[in-house]
Backbone:
């Protein structure tokens, strides 16, 4: 019963769509799922809404996993409850019931869960992320390598009786899920077409069953700066306006 409660609480925490809430609270009205990778995580939010608006997403997503791994201590001492709560937070972030089951990849939620289970072990793999991103500018590569390293570190610590195997199982399960969810990015990395950090997000076509009339009329092939346009209430000059401007310049 305690483990089931931990799983439910962890999933519901993970399912909170922080990036969508940030978009609404800050008044941009931007749904990050319509841009870039189509995910709700920190990396895509950074591409679409910029660093300042992405910081609350970073904190929120990390806190979801941390809370999911710590809250079971309120009603049980079973380490498996904490481990399963952490993994459930990742699942909730990836398939959130509060956001039509369209979420992110669970990297930050997973990081928060691992910090809640074993802070020193989780901190030990941070250099892997910093090194990969610093050298290649690929957040995707850093996330994949860090997830793999976390699984290895947690298993080694369990093998040397430095923590329970429940934590190692949670790390391996979470890392495996995250890496599998990056399968499309791995293909782009191998092809050399993966977006580096700092690159904007391309507008994505909205799934048909979620489309409104506005979605159907909106072109999806052009690159956009979503937040700036939402704040300024401006439209990018269309072909007719550009043509008139060129004609005025030529006449002068």
Residues:
């Amino acid at each position: 019963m305690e483990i089931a409660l931990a799983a439910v609480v962890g999933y519901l925490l993970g399912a909170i769509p922080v990036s969508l809430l940030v978009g609404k609270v800050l008044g941009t009205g931007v749904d990050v799922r319509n841009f870039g990778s189509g995910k709700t995580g920190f990396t895509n939010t950074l591409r679409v809404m910029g660093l300042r608006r992405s910081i609350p997403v970073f904190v929120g997503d990390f806190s979801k996993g941390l809370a999911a791994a710590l809250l079971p201590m309120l009603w049980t001492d079973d380490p498996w409850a904490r481990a399963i709560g952490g993994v459930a937070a990742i699942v909730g972030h990836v398939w959130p019931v509060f956001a039509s089951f369209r979420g992110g990849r669970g990297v930050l939620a997973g990081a928060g869960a691992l910090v809640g289970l074993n802070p020193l072990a989780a901190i030990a793999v941070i250099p892997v992320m910093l090194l990969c991103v610093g050298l290649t500018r690929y957040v995707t590569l850093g996330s994949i390598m860090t997830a793999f390293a976390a699984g290895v570190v947690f298993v080694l610590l369990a093998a040397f009786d430095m923590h329970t195997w429940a934590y190692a199982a949670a790390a391996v399960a979470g890392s495996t899920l995250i890496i599998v969810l990056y399968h499309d990015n791995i293909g782009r990395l191998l092809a050399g077409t993966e977006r580096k950090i700092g690159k904007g997000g391309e507008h994505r076509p909205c799934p048909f069953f979620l489309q409104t009339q506005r979605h159907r009329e909106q072109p999806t092939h052009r690159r956009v700066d979503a937040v700036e346009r939402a704040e300024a209430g401006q439209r990018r000059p269309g072909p007719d306006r550009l043509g008139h401007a060129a004609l005025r310049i030529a006449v002068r």
